[in-house]
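INPUT
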Amino acid sequence: FADYMVKDVKEGNCFRADKLLEQHIDKLIESGKVSKEEQERLLTIAQNADAYSAKELGDKLKELGIKAPITGNALTDPFPFNLMFQTQIGPSGHSPGFLRPETAQSIFVNFKRLLDYNRERMPFAAAQIGLAFRNEIAPRAGLLRVREFLQAEIEHFVDPKDKDHVRFSEIKDNKAFLLPREKQVGKAECIHMSFGEAVEKKIIDNQTLAYFLARSQLFLEACGVNPLKLRFRQHLSNEMAHYAADCWDAEIFLRGYKWVEVAGHADRSAYDLKVHAKATKNTLEAQKALEKPIIEKIVEAAPVMKVMGKAFKRDAKVVKEHLSGLEKDDVLKLEESLKSGEAKIVAGGKEFTLLPEHVQIKKYDKKISTESFIPNVIEPSFGVGRIIYSILDNAFTYVGEGKDRRTILKLPAVIAPIKAGIFCVVSSDELQAIAESIRKGLVEEGLMCQFDRSTTTIGRKYAKSDEIGIPYGISIDNDSKSDNKVTIRDRDSWKQIRVPIEDVPDIIRNLCRLKISFAKCLEKYGEFKQ
Amino acid sequence: FADYMVKDVKEGNCFRADKLLEQHIDKLIESGKVSKEEQERLLTIAQNADAYSAKELGDKLKELGIKAPITGNALTDPFPFNLMFQTQIGPSGHSPGFLRPETAQSIFVNFKRLLDYNRERMPFAAAQIGLAFRNEIAPRAGLLRVREFLQAEIEHFVDPKDKDHVRFSEIKDNKAFLLPREKQVGKAECIHMSFGEAVEKKIIDNQTLAYFLARSQLFLEACGVNPLKLRFRQHLSNEMAHYAADCWDAEIFLRGYKWVEVAGHADRSAYDLKVHAKATKNTLEAQKALEKPIIEKIVEAAPVMKVMGKAFKRDAKVVKEHLSGLEKDDVLKLEESLKSGEAKIVAGGKEFTLLPEHVQIKKYDKKISTESFIPNVIEPSFGVGRIIYSILDNAFTYVGEGKDRRTILKLPAVIAPIKAGIFCVVSSDELQAIAESIRKGLVEEGLMCQFDRSTTTIGRKYAKSDEIGIPYGISIDNDSKSDNKVTIRDRDSWKQIRVPIEDVPDIIRNLCRLKISFAKCLEKYGEFKQ
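OUTPUT
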């Protein structure tokens, strides 16, 4: 976790080298003073900026004559800057600690336990959500690049030889806008293709990766993201981590920011487990049953410890370890030597002479019915803040013109925090009591609602409610006292139905769970017009 | 946020002074070598340990002859140690930052917005959950004292003159074990009393504070905490923050740890808002309507800027500000002086001579119908990790003896993460299909379940399921194919009912929402015995 930084040589101000490069190119292109060919070349440089080495970045900055912003001073060569926040743990001052720059690693560290919880079966997945911290050189773009952010991740562990997904058929016909790496040179152009086809044509590496892309698409669209403003962009080869097999970002087109990454989907291969296994001297492996057991011919050199102990004393252990580490061929060679009377070996830096009575050569057939492997991991990783920003950007709409213009926050009912507004059309204790009973009914169903007790007009109440994204409005009027019915108004169509009070919690609940649409409710209850 | 620390003078190891004192006293008392009187005196010291000043702590450590653990070396005098983790923000190295030691402050900082969201009405509350970080000198006691912990808090803002709670009547007859401060001297003895009585007798300061104590009790008991192992302990006067009006901890008796604080309930008065207002030069106030408007006699010195501008040029503004800042009496004095021809004032360090034409003295009646006040805040604050630990401690039980002993995790259904286990009594594709359809039905209701596809016996499956706290087991057997029914088994009573498959999701959902008890289900469906 490092970014390349450059400093203003005189003032000492710090800048992110890749961002300076990108901004400079943006300005050049906007100026309209560069040829079309040069434009294409510059765009390719900008696209690669965050994947360049320090040397490449330095060369490009020099080539384009980029200076420090505002002061116009010269810049230092790019140098890496550690993005992890450092602190001290405990009172001694001698134990440095770092805030985690990503949440993923704690799942890998717990791999053995997780596998155990899943009763040793593969594939399985673990999910988590938590804060990550990066000491960004230049946080900007509002909530899109911040130093403390909420990350949600799934680590789906699979057999590297079988990356098919059991539920792939459910999503294989879903189409998405894909931007494979070879389409990103110059002007980016998406292809609209089903996930099934993309896997078949090897555009997406495997079914599991594609399955998660499809699930992310379903999730983001359910959150109200416009399908035309959502694409999946494959990482360029130099942008992708060296160990990754394939990597696709979900990107959303946001007002004022263009395409913004909101989720990454990486096939990280076995990299993380291998690194952790090595550093902790543990094996982080799973087992699988072989279709047919294999008969392996085992050849072992078994030490006769009683005899060896007398001969080698405390060195016997070293010799024993040496013997157990021998490969099949080495054992056979050892057997040959022993047949000729003795064998010389080197163990723990010393030479030993083995006699036939020290070692028993064992040969037998072993039935092997399981195989060990280091699981690969497919990781969908979500930036929660960016997704919430995208949801708001997609939901924020207007109706009307000029001074009649009104804001409506079209949050889908399934994610709207407040599911219903409750309004009395006229102020009266009797209507308030009905409203209160409806409020209780909704709360009991776990449906958050807002009872607007103010005395403003019903129109103003609807407007306030639309503005904060409440999908349904429940109005109690004087007729409610006699017919035991209330109206439910749909924020997006402004249409109303009139329904029995006792049905309200179920209707709102089913609308919010997408069990029924408001259109279906209109069919069932008829449109209500005052 | 500071603890007192002492160091081993030779080795430099650090210790928390109050904990050393407590541990030493614990050992003394356990040794049985101290008189009953001395025991009482020592217990009082131990109870006060975390409230002592540096000097008091130092004196007690010396008095009891406490040395560094293990080495037995002398200790330094106690000195404060900042518990906040420090780091650097941004690349310059010149911007120190701290990890927050509590989550509360972000609510106070946002007070104005929150009041606005609530349409300026009082009382209102804001809740939040998040990580807090304290660089504990000696984290210990497993998950009970950690350096990074999850805190959940409610800040309930009230009018300082009216701390009654609108829903107090709902909980006023609930009884709890209370440990007021005067009962904590020597041997602590709880009183069992209703919240209504406790407020009436001024044991608990006010209704709102008592309301939250009652809600915490309901919450913790719903989570499975044994009511006999839950008490509310009032802070000692020297333990309570100087600004607090009253403070009660919820404490749970845990195996191996005795009474452990899991939540605090403090009336923090107006302290936080006052401090933030002062530091940011903002007013953090709310308004309330007066029952009867007040008529206030206003006397103002209004500058006649046209004339004053000519006379004082650019100083006119300073004079104007001086005039608008005058109190009523000062204006009346000014009026007197002006009547005698002129008045001398000092503004912005300069003297000015005001003439009658410069100032107009205005006298009028003003109707005042609202009053400003700085809200007080009642804060229930929960340590999420400690609550989860307490839930597990309370849920962890055994049945049977010796090698038949089995673990059962009696998590209440309402909080159990997995609500139901699904089991096929015999292995068959047909039964698996029924099981799968039940799984889908439960998932659609948002009920997490575990379909145990293994081929072990049903008894072993139940045992596994009991061990991880799943409250209900759904078993599909060969009869299910013909009668379309399955059995539901209750983890805690091991009793079973047999119900139509299509009713399963509703039954499980209602059991988990406490809409129906298993006893009621037994009445309705009859007990099923094989």
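end of record. The first strand of chain A starts at residue 2 and ends at 7.
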